[in-house]
Structure prediction request, 576 residues.
Amino acid sequence: MVKNVLQYLELNEKENPDKILFSEEDKNITYKDFVYNAKTIGSNINRKLNMTNKSIVIFMEKSIECLVAMMGTVYSGNFYTIIDTKSPRERIKNICDKLEPEMIIVDRKNHEKIKGYTELKNTQLYEELKIGKIEKERLNQIRRTMIDTDLIYVLFTSGSTGKPKGIAVSHRSVISYISSVVEIFNFDKNTVFGNQTPFYFSMSVLDIFSTIMVGASLNIIPKRYFSFPIRLLEYLNKYKINTIYWVPSALCIVANLKALDEVKPKTLTKILFAGEIMPVKQLNEWRKNVKALYANLYGPTEVTDICTYYILDREFKENESIPIGKACDNCNVLILNNDGDLSTKGELCVRGSFLASGYYKDKEKTKKAFVQNPLNKNYPEKIYKTGDIVKINENGEIIYMCRKDFQIKHMGYRIELGEIEKNVNAIKEILLGICVYDEIKSKIILFYQSQQLEKHELYKKLKEKLLPYMIPNEIIKLENIPYNQNGKVDRKLLKNNFMEGVY
Amino acid sequence: MEKLVEILKKYNPDVDYYTNEHIIDEEALDSFDIISLVADIDREFDVEITAKDIIPENFNSAKKIYELIERLS
Prediction:
């Protein structure tokens, strides 16, 4: 019986101890060494804390070592949260306030950044935690007492109030989700993932845990390669990467610069994408140059990663949308209208064991999003309301239409424009700041009114306050912000004017 | 050159572009920044920077970028 993701890891370690599990450029680690290091860290954590099912924060560079710390935490019987080392102080503080972690694992490089937080009682250096003895009996004891509904991680998205929401996910959800996705896409021992997405982002769950489950290999592609498309394609060839699961923006960079005319990927056979809408023009550029399986995946972090998928089986014109397809095996989706009845257009809701356990320490938000299935009057059964509006097309495929509320998807991240506005309006010199999103150009546009503050000064301030991907792509200073007849800011007009090039 | 530095400042105002010769190595520009930067340069200088030119060696300093622009125009 599999109740813990580490069982897959150990199974594959036994079978292929000397196989490369994770790599990054020319650095790599075998299954055997990885398990050894993770067990050492797990033993040390548990010796220090002597408790399980507690929160541990990992504040490390995206690296092989970070993966060791993640699985080390799981060995210790606790659950991890990865915090982006480039996060602004406020976000780090908000996340730690919510989690009240028992321990923070930090690497030497980032130790300074976290030092100022006096409230963080237990900071451990990764480099020190890695040294020591494996305590077999202790680890066995932890495994015996743990069950599959215990948490494996908590991932954070931004919340509408500015306070980040922590999505708590159990071993059960990860095992169910990965079992399904591995079958759909036939991942196996020959799979070599080229990982793009950050480990604090739910898409990376597919890369990491599929690798562990089937005994594959994963190569962490350093972020800077995504600035240099030719180098990126050469990297894929050099390390014989055959499977990628990237955000559309990463695929678009390659397509827009016509890099595929210069370098042909020789080993790629599976190209998956999710996180935002994949534009057809760029997708066609890829399909023209690379014969591979292409699939559009869809899902929020609250269902572990994805709940629907569509494997491309026909040509698409530039004005068509690529479907998000149908539900994954062992997952079910419902399209509900405002009355809570099944419909061909409405809010997408998900049921099944992919569902997260809820929002960490947030009963209210959990109650709102994870609700009783309105179609089931007979026994308790939760569905997750995604807040995404979808419809069914004539082929019976699901098509994504828009967010129900004010959230946008930008570069694969879920962002609430209200959070950006809140931060802008918190700046003393700002009279008013309004954000709109141009879906066509994938740009966040910030309009603002101020007597003193110039664009570059505002930009600098925003860099201190916001996560990199939340920083507006265009900042426009206006003498007057337009209002509609109800006295509300006329966002539609602002957006239309921007798109028509008035500003 | 001033025009170029002005554009670069938009992406990261904290860098001294006249002296820094390791913009890329020091990760002063975010990975997605380069792509918008290329679009800005194309527009402002009326050049067309293609994938072949978008390699770290051409972007490590303002001087290097400027040389690239001169080569292309």
